[in-house]
Design brief:
The protein is mainly beta. Helix content is about 5%, strand content about 50%. Strands 2, 5, 6, 8, 9, 11 and 12 form a seven-stranded antiparallel β-sheet that branches. About 35% of the residues are buried. The N terminus is likely disordered.
Length: about 280
Amino acid sequence: MTILTHLPLVGLLVTGIAASLCPSASPAGEDWGTVATLEVLDGGSLEGGRYLGALHLRLEPGWKTYWRSPGDAGIPPRFDWRGSQNVADLRITWPTPAVFETSGMRTIGYHDELVLPVEITPRQPGAPIRLKGQMELGLCKDVCIPSELVFDHAADLAAPRNPTIVAALAARPYTAAEGRVTGVSCRLAPTPYGMKVTARIRMPSAGAEEVAVIEGSSPEMMAGETRSWREGGELVAESELLPTGNAPLAVDRSALRFTVLGTSHAVDIRGCTAG
């Protein structure tokens, strides 16, 4: 295990970014100490020469961080794996997040800790693997601070299966099949700034309260707040997709992602048909 340090980003970066994305931002230059630490966990080898690890984030009491789609306000995590060695492909599994209501805004994330399983396909199976890079994320309590966590870890390819990683994998949302989704159709309509997506998801309830999240089909677009409601056996989810640059917005229905967060379970759904 490699223990990693928390490096708060202070000054104008804190004031500018946090103020625009979080309910309240930290004053410039304020020293918040170590509110989060990160370690890389070893989970052993998998079939085909793959390796299982995890990023284990621990937060001080009362602090939270955000899911890959943070909701109305928040800072989505970003990863930079440059510096890693013998890594051909890397896949992250996100455990089911919690939904928070803060200052009238809905955010999505984690409190106390976050374990992100990471499945590595090496360039050379059996050769040493090194995970090195940084994780940029938002940390919030009464204030929010954008932060950076650096990591550098030599993987133990002979490590046994790690129960902490196994538990995080088990906490993932259901697949569409597991959630008994029988169909998803999407209607697209141009807006002055982007494209409105209205999805109709045929599935049984995921719990008394359901929150749907729509994610764009490429990094060149971002989704606004998702509204969702029930119409019989269908969950209707609606959001506006906006371009992140100057390129024309091209929406690939098959690459859209829908997550339904219910009080009973969550469901991860990929793609939709025209409708």
